[in-house]
User: What shape does this take?
Amino acid sequence: MMELTNTNILTLLNCYEAHDVMRLAGKDVSLVCLPVFHIAGTGVGLLCLAQWAHTVVLEEVSVAGIVDAISRYRVNSLVLVPAVILMLVQHAESIPTDFGCVRCLVYGASPIAQDV
Assistant: This one.
């Protein structure tokens, strides 16, 4: 088992900043719906907190939960995996919401299909 150190986390945050990934401010609302037992979820959550953004953390990933959080909290920044983006696209008509507040969507963990 590998241990993540404080230096690992600070380096991750510095990389996000250096590459201008998810530039946030205190007025921004970010959604964390990645597992926080994994570096992706932890890293995104810490990035949001380090930039003083309001951060909404979902206990589990569901289309209804994501759509509700976006609508309720006016989320403007989120990180998703391609499979979750596909689920949102496939259910967009059955759970209508205004995604107009979202200005930054970052994806990772696997390649994304062209049609998604």
